């Protein structure tokens, strides 16, 4: 009787290698997909946060004009009622709080030295942003103005509404 020597194979077969490479590839693509999705969502949330602050800043600009009018002892709506012209909207930034320029698709820019979002004519600006802001003021009686601030970027819009009252005695 012959002894059969059993041969023990060490290593992987070609099929095992192909399956292993496929599993690793699927795992790597899955991780890259999650990272890419996370990066896109983070960018979208960053843009929404900036738009929220730009809306709030637009409302604060209008309130600042009203308050400055009261301190200067002029009509509380001085400079605000010019925004109710035939065009119905104006633009403003925090350095130049007059609403004398009408909204015509100007984009906000970032000033590198301060990080402020500004319109090009208000100061030296460095980086164009995708954001545009529109402030619409509509009279609602003698002592009330309705204020709407819209911020546009890419295919998105954010809008806030507020009421401005004459609170002077």
Quote the average pLDDT.
81
What is the molecular shape?
A: elongated
Major beta-sheet overview: 3 strands, antiparallel
- Taken in chain order, the helices and strands follow as HEEEEEEEE
**Class per helix and strand makeup:** alpha+beta
Question: Given the structure, what is the number of helices?
Answer: 1
Q: Helix fraction?
A: 25-40%
Assembly state (oligomeric): single chain
What Rg do the Cα atoms give?
A: 30 Å
Strand order of the largest sheet: 4-3-5
* Spatial separation of the terminal alpha carbons: 120 Å
Q: Percent of residues in beta strands?
A: 15-25%
Overall domain count: 1
**DSSP, total strands:** 8
Low-confidence stretches: none
List the helices and strands and how they pair.
Layout: H1 14-71, E1 90-91, E2 101-102, E3 109-110, E4 117-118, E5 127-128, E6 131-139, E7 144-153, E8 156-165
Antiparallel strand pairs: 1-2, 3-4, 3-5, 6-7, 7-8
Describe the structure.
This protein is an alpha+beta fold. The chain has one domain (about 15-165). Helix content is about 35%, strand content about 25%. The protein is built from 1 helix and 8 strands; from the N terminus they run αββββββββ. It has one helix at about 15-70; strands spanning about 90, 100, 110, 115-120, 125-130, 130-140, 145-155, 155-165. The strands form 3 sheets. The protein has a 3-stranded antiparallel beta sheet, with no helix packed on it. Strands 6-7-8 form a 3-stranded antiparallel beta sheet, with helices on one face. The longest helix has about 60 residues, at about 15-70. The radius of gyration is 30 Å and the shape is elongated.
